[in-house]
Amino acid sequence: MNAVELQARSEIVTVSQALDAAGLVPNKSGNVSCRRPDGFLITPAGVPYRDLSAERIVPLALDCATEPGDLRPSSEWRMHAAIYARRPDVHAIVHTHSPRATALACAGRGIPPFHYMIARAGGRDIRCAPYATFGTQELSDHAVRALEGRRACLLAHHGMIAVGASLESTLELAIEVETLAEMYWRALQVGEPELLSDAEMAKVLEKFRTYGQPCRAG
Ligand SMILES: [Zn+2]
Fold first, then answer.
1. Where are the alpha helices (DSSP H) in 127-197?
2. For the residues of 146-162, what is the DSSP string, one character each?
3. Under 8 Å between Cβ of 111 and 125
4. 69-94 in b/e burial notation, b at 16+ Cβ within 10 A?
5. Neighbours of ion ligand 1 (CB under 5 A)
6. Were 128 and a residue from 60, 75, 110, 203 both cysteine, which residue would form a disulfide, CB within 3.0 to 4.6 Å?
């Protein structure tokens, strides 16, 4: 394993354990991957996050073949493969069953522009993809569609996906989406919140694009 590969694998372990510590991947759910020149690296199926190590991360080739001796990849590897194939801008993917985003997804609700930070996910809303059985091509297709022009989406009766240019920024986005899901859920307790207009969201998106990292926005 060369130094670049070792670094990428170690980063996947760090991000996975950060998600676990933040309570975003309850009971071994969720998975993390990053692109590499000939495919991608992904967390293994069924290994507790505390037991992950660089050696246990699974390399998948572009045709999704594994090497003999590797652990089985996460059961959601198809979803990751489909996103990398369709989105050249994506270099990292975080998938969670984080409780707040998943609760909204179970109600079939995406997250509308109730707060300007929705723009962090790349557009005026965070869509909810229709339900399909986990691990299927059908779910992968739904996810790719819900992510069009976006960096995050919810998956009905399942969870959420965040994508990005790096593992670090994708972890931050996954935490942001979970935070927004909690805020939206709480706002709904008070009453249906008024939404920001398309014109206002376009302005925010432009500011994020022009003024550097949206995560440092005030
Ligand atoms: Zn899942």
1. 137-146, 167-190
2. HTTT-SEEEETTTEEEE
3. yes
4. eeeebbebbbbbbbbbeebeebbbbb
5. 159
6. 110
Choosing from 5, 67, 76, 172, the catalytic residue is 76
pLDDT in tens, the chain (218 residues): 889 889 999 999 999 999 999 999 998 899 999 999 889 999 999 999 999 999 999 999 877 777 777 899 999 999 999 999 999 999 999 999 999 999 999 999 999 999 999 999 999 999 999 999 999 999 999 999 999 999 999 999 999 999 999 999 999 999 999 999 999 999 999 999 999 999 999 999 999 988 755 454 44
State how far the Cα of 8 lies from the Cα of 42, in Å rounded to an integer. 10
Amino acid identity for residue 154 in this structure = L
**How far does Cα 79 stand from its chain's mean position?**
11
Q: 38, 134, 36, 129: which is closest to 79 by C-alpha?
A: 134
CA separation for the pair 47, 61 (Å, rounded): 21
Task: Tell me how far CA of residue 54 lies from CA of 57, 167, 168, 194, 217, in angstroms.
Answer: 6, 15, 17, 46, 34
- Reply yes or no on whether 76 is catalytic: yes
Whole-angstrom distance, CA of residue 94 vs CA of residue 81: 13
